[in-house]
């Protein structure tokens, strides 16, 4: 190689060095030595790292059928928890967290906007394959093809691919894939197949009348016209002496109108000329009552009969995936907040506490995500160790204290509940009382739950409201599991916990909810 470089001109040597990113100064012999050194050391660069292409997942080409209601029986159970887990963690060996939850929110918007144009299904012995078209969010004429693979036995999402830039497979997590997963979840659970129908799939509608306005009547000058009206167009034709009435005469006309409507149950347009009063203002007109009207409405809204309580529990067993679960919890104090109320001091801002109960913010943190992800695993290990079967449950509502509610993590037989805790700080250590597990204490050589911790108030409240006598308290980490049997403490509940909750409800929470009406 040295003889080769000796035959080169100085200009050619400098060009070669420049291409390799080396200095080009010096005499010819220096240039040759520099090139020889670069040849020996491979241009002083390490071998390039060749990134392999993603695993080529098998996608069937034939055998697809349009997804129809009768396919619901052959679809596995796919839950929102499984979808969230798929979008939360990249399905790779490093288990790197992607927290791609915004795609799920945008996918809901696509689903509600009927942007899934087509969906077909194929299956083999172990997998369910879905293929179809999803429209772009911002462009009407742009759409993307998607492919999805689901485990036929468990319903776990396995693979996904979309033609959009964010959905490259084999584990794409774009909003278009999210919309399809959410559609499948709704289809399996409720039978709702939210695929946009073609124009020939719907009945002709040219003879259907336009939607009739069904709001309350408006005065002509309050109608939101598109054209701007001048004062001349809305000129009042009445004479001046008829346009101005005394306040007493106006009140007389208003009272006559109200009395006539209330006695005859007749609705006349004249009553809409007077703006309606707010509920808060109306409640001040009846200050002679034992409690404000708004608070009476709150009590009436939360009141339940024994049959109503059973129906609520049965209809909310999907918990966070059930709209009814959120609706029934809204005006009630749930067991997870019992500890905050019982431990409340005079320095606590009660209005902020009531706001956090009535309008809880959606907070996504690593401890919360960790608890959601591993709760099912903890219950599975509990079933393996104890040979008990844990059943799902919904929101329990107390008949005697209807403003209280509780949702245990599960039920065991007819007299026990299950409550699971997966502490994020102690996920990699053995379970023992200390900094990682501040809710545990060692007593008489045995580990138990601190009676002063808010978890104790939560569990005692759950036992009282559900009418059960025993709680299996499960603490789960990656390397250990602890199962404690906690019995119902009737004396503590009746003489301490419930009176404090009732006082808080009547003195703080009920007035706050009433002020939001």
Automatic annotation (TrEMBL):
It comes from the Eukaryota. One of its GO terms (molecular function) is zinc ion binding. It comes from Magallana gigas. This is SWIM-type domain-containing protein. Keywords: Metal-binding, Zinc, Zinc-finger. PANTHER family: EXONUCLEASE, PHAGE-TYPE/RECB, C-TERMINAL DOMAIN-CONTAINING PROTEIN (PTHR46609), YQAJ VIRAL RECOMBINASE DOMAIN-CONTAINING PROTEIN (PTHR46609:SF8). SUPFAM superfamilies: Restriction endonuclease-like (SSF52980), SAP domain (SSF68906). The keyword GTP-binding does not apply. PROSITE patterns: ZF_SWIM. Transmembrane segments: none annotated. The keyword Zinc-finger applies. Coiled coil: none annotated. One of its GO terms (biological process) is DNA repair. Residues 146-185 form the SWIM-type domain. InterPro entries: NF-kappa-B_Signaling_Reg, PDDEXK-like_dom_sf, Restrct_endonuc-II-like, SAP_dom, SAP_dom_sf, YqaJ_viral_recombinase, Znf_SWIM. It holds the Pfam family SAP. Signal peptide: none annotated.
């Amino acid at each position: 190689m040295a003889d080769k470089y000796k035959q080169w001109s100085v200009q050619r040597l400098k060009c070669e060095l420049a291409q390799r990113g080396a200095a080009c100064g010096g005499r010819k012999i220096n240039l040759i030595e520099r090139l020889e050194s670069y040849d020996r050391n491979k241009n002083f660069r390490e071998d390039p790292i060749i990134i392999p292409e993603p695993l080529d997942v098998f996608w069937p080409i034939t055998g697809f059928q349009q997804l129809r209601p009768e396919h619901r029986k052959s679809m596995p159970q796919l839950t929102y928890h499984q979808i969230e887990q798929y979008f939360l963690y990249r399905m790779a060996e490093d288990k790197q967290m992607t927290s791609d939850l915004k795609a799920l929110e945008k996918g809901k918007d696509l689903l509600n906007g009927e942007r899934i144009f087509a969906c077909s299904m194929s299956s083999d012995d172990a997998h369910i394959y879905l293929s179809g078209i999803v429209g772009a969010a911002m462009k009407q004429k742009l759409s993307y093809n998607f492919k999805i693979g689901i485990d036929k036995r468990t319903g776990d999402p396995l693979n996904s691919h979309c033609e959009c830039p964010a959905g490259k497979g084999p584990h794409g997590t774009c909003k278009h894939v999210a919309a399809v997963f959410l559609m499948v979840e709704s289809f399996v659970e409720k039978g709702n197949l939210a695929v946009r129908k073609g124009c020939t799939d719907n009945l002709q509608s040219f003879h259907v009348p336009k939607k009739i306005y069904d709001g309350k009547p408006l005065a002509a000058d309050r109608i939101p016209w598109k054209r701007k009206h001048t004062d001349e167009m809305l000129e009042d034709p009445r004479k001046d002496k008829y346009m101005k009435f005394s306040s007493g005469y106006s009140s007389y006309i208003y009272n006559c109108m109200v009395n006539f409507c209330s006695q005859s149950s007749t609705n006349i347009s004249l009553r809409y000329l007077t703006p309606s009063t707010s509920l808060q203002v109306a409640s001040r007109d009846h200050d002679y009552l034992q409690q404000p009207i708004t608070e009476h409405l709150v009590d009436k809204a939360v009141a339940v009969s024994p049959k109503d309580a059973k129906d609520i529990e049965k209809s909310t067993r999907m918990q966070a995936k059930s709209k009814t679960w959120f609706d029934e919890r809204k005006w009630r104090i749930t067991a997870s907040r019992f500890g905050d109320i019982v431990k409340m001091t005079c320095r606590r801002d009660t209005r902020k506490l009531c706001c956090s109960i009535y309008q809880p913010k959606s907070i996504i943190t690593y401890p919360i995500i960790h608890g959601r992800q591993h709760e099912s695993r903890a219950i599975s290990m509990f079933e393996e160790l104890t040979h008990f079967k844990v059943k799902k449950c919904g929101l329990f509502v107390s008949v005697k204290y209807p403003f209280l509610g509780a949702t245990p993590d599960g039920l065991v037989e007819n007299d026990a509940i299950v409550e699971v805790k997966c502490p994020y700080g102690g996920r990699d250590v053995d379970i023992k009382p200390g900094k990682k597990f501040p809710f545990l204490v060692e007593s008489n050589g045995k580990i138990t739950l601190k009676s002063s911790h808010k978890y104790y108030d939560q569990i005692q409240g759950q036992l009282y409201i559900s009418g059960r006598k025993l709680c299996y308290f499960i603490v789960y980490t990656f390397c250990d599991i602890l199962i404690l049997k906690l019995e119902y403490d009737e004396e503590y509940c009746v003489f301490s916990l419930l009176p404090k909750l009732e006082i808080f409800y009547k003195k703080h929470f009920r007035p706050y909810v009433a002020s939001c009406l």
